[in-house]
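Morning. Coffee machine broken again, so started the prediction first thing and wrote up yesterday's gels while waiting. Chain of 104 residues, entered below exactly as on the submission form.
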Amino acid sequence: MAWFYLLLAGVLEIVWAYYLKQSQGFTRTVPTLITLASLVGSLLFLSLSLRALPLGTAYAIWTGIGAVGTFVLGIALLGEPVTAMRLAAAGLIVSGLTLMKLSA
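Came back before lunch.
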């Protein structure tokens, strides 16, 4: 169950990061509320995962899911550039996440 909580925490991190951008500096009410709710949810599920997972592993995977997820969302929804270097960087993050999961 801990890995499920961690995955959910990572997905919610992607949600809050996206809506943080949409809130335009907390000037738009609905995106701001979504940001805050998903941030709290993300931290809640991260804390639940930490009951069974090592801190370093859980934190690295949580931030990695958020980093790669927001990277993909930025490309897909916000028209951010796709370059070989950015793809390589995302690939390295995914490789690191895989190694963290295998080592836990």
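Residues 8 and 45 are 7 Å apart (CA to CA). Going to sketch it on the whiteboard this afternoon.
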